[in-house]
Design a protein that fits this description.
With 265 residues, the chain is of the alpha+beta class. It has a single domain, classed as BirA Bifunctional Protein, domain 2 (2-Layer Sandwich), CATH 3.30.930.10. The chain has four helices and twelve strands. The strands form two sheets. Strands 1, 2, 3, 4, 5, 6, 7, 8, 9 and 12 form a ten-stranded mixed β-sheet that branches. The longest helix is centred in the middle third of the chain and has 15 residues. It is globular, with a radius of gyration of 17 Å.
C-alpha cells in the first residue's frame, strides 16, 4: 500500500460514514495569529470547532498539509517529520466519543486489517482540568481490547492542544501498534516500550485555553480528535506502520465536534 492508496481508503471509508471531503488549506493559517504555520488539521477549522456552521454540514473529512513546529525537537526520530499530511475526519455537532472510537477501530482493523493482537490504547487519567476517562476505557474493552492493553496516562501523554497559545484543547485516547514482526506483542501494554508506535488519536477537545494561556473554560462545542492521533501535544501524528507490505508514513487525525447542548447519554 502506498500513500495514494492509503488516502483513498481513508477518504472512501469516511465518505461511507456520511462525511464530505474538503481540500487542504494553506500552510500559512489565515485565522490564527498565534502560529506562523499550519501545524495541525484543526487550524483551518477553528471557527467551526467553536460553533460556526460549516457550509458542507456536520461531517467532514480532509487531508491537511502541516509543518511541525511545536515539537520540532522530535524531528529526526523514527516517527516524526517536519512536513507531513494529516488525515482528519470531523464531526461538527453530530457524533461523539463512542462513534469516534468505533470508527477508529473499524478503519484500523477492518480496512487496514491490523490484527487486534497488535493494538493497545491509552486514555486520560484525569487532573484538576478534566476527569478520568473511564467512558473511553469501557468502549475499548467492549470492542475487544484486553484490560492489560488499556493504560491511563497523565496530561503530558494524553492531552492535546491547543496548537497555538490559545484555542480548543482537551484529553484524548490514543491507539498504538506493535511494530516488531519477529517479537510477539507482550500481554501488558507498556507505553515506555518504543516498539509500541502511536498510530491514531481521538482528542476530546472539550475546552478552550484562555487568551493569556493560563486557564481553561468549557468550549461551545466539544471536539473529539482521533489522530493519527492524538496526538500528543500536537494534533498530528506521524508514524510508521509496519503491518503493511510497503512501509509508509501515516498521519491520521480524526476530529469530532458536538455542540455542548446536545445530549449523548
Amino acid at each position: 500500500m502506498n500513500r495514494k492508496e492509503l488516502i483513498k481508503k481513508y477518504l472512501d471509508f469516511f465518505k461511507s460514514k456520511g462525511h464530505k471531503v474538503i481540500p487542504s488549506a494553506s500552510l500559512v493559517p489565515d485565522n490564527d495569529p498565534t502560529v506562523l504555520f499550519t501545524t495541525a488539521g484543526m487550524h483551518p477549522l477553528v471557527p467551526y470547532l467553536l460553533g460556526q456552521k460549516h457550509p458542507l454540514g456536520k461531517r467532514i473529512v480532509d487531508v491537511q498539509k502541516c509543518i511541525r513546529t511545536t515539537d520540532i525537537d522530535e524531528v529526526g526520530d523514527s516517527t516524526h517529520h517536519t512536513f507531513f499530511e494529516m488525515l482528519g475526519n470531523w464531526s461538527l455537532g453530530d457524533y461523539w466519543k463512542k462513534e469516534a472510537i468505533e470508527f477508529s477501530f473499524e478503519f484500523l482493523t477492518k480496512i487496514l486489517k491490523i490484527p487486534i493482537e497488535r493494538l493497545a490504547v491509552s486514555v486520560f487519567s484525569g487532573d484538576s482540568n478534566a476527569t478520568r476517562d473511564d467512558e473511553a476505557a469501557k468502549i475499548w474493552l467492549s470492542l475487544g481490547i484486553p484490560k492489560d492493553r488499556v493504560a491511563f496516562l497523565r496530561k503530558e501523554d494524553n492531552w492535546w492542544g491547543p496548537a497555538g497559545k490559545t484555542g480548543p484543547c482537551g484529553p484524548d485516547t490514543e491507539m498504538f501498534y506493535w511494530k516488531k514482526n519477529d517479537v510477539k506483542p507482550p500481554k501488558k501494554f507498556d507505553p515506555e516500550n518504543e516498539n509500541w508506535v502511536e498510530i491514531w488519536n481521538d482528542v476530546l477537545m472539550q475546552y478552550v485555553k484562555d487568551e493569556k494561556g493560563n486557564g481553561y473554560f468549557k468550549s461551545p462545542q466539544e471536539t473529539l480528535e482521533s489522530k493519527s492521533g492524538d496526538c500528543e501535544d500536537m494534533v498530528l501524528l506521524l508514524m510508521k506502520v509496519q503491518v503493511l507490505k510497503n512501509l509508509f508514513w501515516l498521519t491520521v487525525q480524526v476530529q469530532h465536534v458536538r455542540t455542548q447542548q446536545e445530549d449523548y447519554l
